[in-house]
Design goal:
It is a single chain. The chain has 196 residues and is an all-alpha fold. It has 2 domains: 12-105, Rna Polymerase Sigma Factor, Chain: A; 106-196, Arc Repressor Mutant, subunit A (Orthogonal Bundle), CATH 1.10.10. 79% of the residues lie in helices and 0% in strands. It is built from 10 helices and no strands. The model is unreliable at 1-13 (pLDDT under 50).
Amino acid sequence: MSEGQNQNDVGIDSTDQVNNSASVSKVFNDNYKTLVYFANRFVKDKDAAEDIVQDIFVKYWIRQLDRDEFPELSFLYTSVRNACLNHIRNKQTQSNKLKLLGNKYDDDYALLSIIKAEAIKEIYNAVQKLPVQCRKIVHLGYFENMANHEIADVLRISINTVKTQKTRGFQLLRNKIEPDSLALIFLLHWAFNNKL
């Protein structure tokens, strides 16, 4: 370092790095699970989906070291989608690539997947605001796909308590989730089940 230079002239200010890292951490924490769900819709492999999303965030963090601006959520979705398609291309033979890149991975499918991931994120956030016992039961039943008797065994409660708490959870969720979001969730469920 020359005599006329101070530490801030040589590199990135350490305070800016800490603030930037905290901002990147917030973006990561707010969107990681949703982006993993989105990636998993393409690659059908949760470990690969997690790796893809982590790689996107590492690349994003490296590029943001000297910037204060952060990309929009659409940039992250597009980056994850492209990384998923690259993963599929690298994993499949040439003949399989053409089949996989047909209708299933077109822009309409990607858009529906983004909307569904965001709807699930809203539901998940609403579930987190439920009372503790009700939240556990709803989470086990709908995110872990456990049957009522399995939930009762795990939590050491009666099956009737499980049924009552599920009903209560749905009533509370209806009040916490916007009506437009509920309609969208049902529409998406129908669209994915009918392979639109």
